[in-house]
Predict the structure of Peptide ABC transporter.
Amino acid sequence: MLLEAKQIGFRYERDRPVLRGVDISIQSGEIVGLVGPSGFGKSTLSRILAGYEQPHEGQVLLDGAPLPASGFHPVQLVFQHPEKAVNPRWRMSRTLAEAGDLDASLLERLGVQKEWLERFPNELSGGELQRFCVARALGRGTRFLLADEMTAMLDAITQAQIWQVVLEVARKENMGVLVISHEKHLIHRLCTRVVDLTITHEKT
Ligand SMILES: Nc1ncnc2c1ncn2[C@@H]1O[C@H](COP(=O)(O)OP(=O)(O)OP(=O)(O)O)[C@@H](O)[C@H]1O
């Protein structure tokens, strides 16, 4: 499968484009890094690739077709702030159910404890909550995972544990992964290819 963004243009405010003429593509099985200075539009691009934002120019295609508008989305985004990605009024078991039927061992491998399932998001630490968000994003229908500073707020051991599981699942399921991070060593260790947004970005 191929996820591609072609000639993407995007602005939040009139006359202030954030992205202009950006191209990026990810093949199944690839681990691609996306780097660039702060404020250059990396998170915006990941939201466009996941279908949360519509580009003002260009298009996002999955095997040549537009992203599906309903059902479990094949492109899943996990970002830095898990508390913004879950419904605060739902117990974690309900949030997880959004991913459908998960691989039984996944929660255990991600270090999710059974008793956490009955808790609400505000009864978990950021790191505990992020494990749920990662699990939910690794549902059986996921073909591409976009990790936007996914482990930036976690300690090194938790970061390594989560990435190990993500890479195992990605390899087994032949998922494509986009890694957005300011941590050069993480990008270097994980990625087979790196896209630099300062180069991809069309100069004016
Ligand atoms: N909702 C919004 N409304 C207006 N401007 C926004 C909004 N979200 C982001 N921006 C602006 O768009 C630009 C790109 O932001 P974005 O978060 O995509 O950058 P980034 O490369 O991911 O940055 P960082 O590395 O700091 O996370 C920034 O100038 C930011 O201030």
